[in-house]
Amino acid sequence: MTIAHDVAGSGPTVVLLHSTVCDRRMWDPQVPALVDAGYRTVRADFRGFGESPMPDRPYSDAQDVVDLLDSLGVERATVVAVSGGGRVGQEVAARWPARVAALMLVSTALGGHEPGAELRAFGEREDELLEAGDVAGATALNVATWLGPYASDETRARVGQMQRHAFEVQLAGDPDVESLGVEFDVSDIVAPTLLVSGAHDLPDFREIAVELAGRLPHARHVPLDWAGHLPSLERPDAFNTLLIDFLRDGDG
User: Fold this and answer.
1) Domains in the chain: how many in total?
2) CB-based contacts of 25: which residues, under 8 Å, 6+ apart?
3) SUPFAM superfamilies, from UniProt (predicted)?
4) pTM, rounded to two decimals
5) How does pLDDT run across 207-222, given as a tens digit for each residue?
6) The CATH number of the domain where 220 resides is what?
């Protein structure tokens, strides 16, 4: 299957991979700015998010992204990925290095990372709420955890809507369908990489950004003192400036 997606604008292609708290609608504040700046945007919903249904057979998010690019005739693109989507972005950049011109990882996850106390506590509490059938409570927990102090009430409501929809789709799917785990080495990433972390995020994601900045050959880390886990939604104008500057600096 081809995952749900949309395309806007013309010019060099920028692929936008969403957080697993959201879906492709999280990029609504970025698409007009990128199009106005002369870029073609491709944004997609991973399986079980937004308009992409749950899989009915083993699948790979990274392969889905590459298949989508193939279907659109995109040979090379900049990848911008957030949180859980960041791990997918890493896999694409490591396994298909010729396809990725540049990589921007925001509050990214990392395979093999040992969760800290706060992240473990969050995961345990989310599991408890979902096992009790309290989808509303699990949704509220995610909104409170993943948005920083500058997120508006409207943004919090939008994230809650996306997260609740994802829970409902995933809980209705077949829990036994597996994601195909393909081993890859982040050291194989050769694309210029910008790592972004937020001071108001859980410590894990700042630690991951620092680690990856040391492991990747062409990486730099930009910590944002105002940001939580989802800076593109919390302060879209500031984030858009950072993103477009990265693209125009010749990295993307």
Assistant:
1) 1
2) 50, 158, 162
3) alpha/beta-Hydrolases
4) 0.96
5) 999 999 999 989 999 9
6) 3.40.50.1820
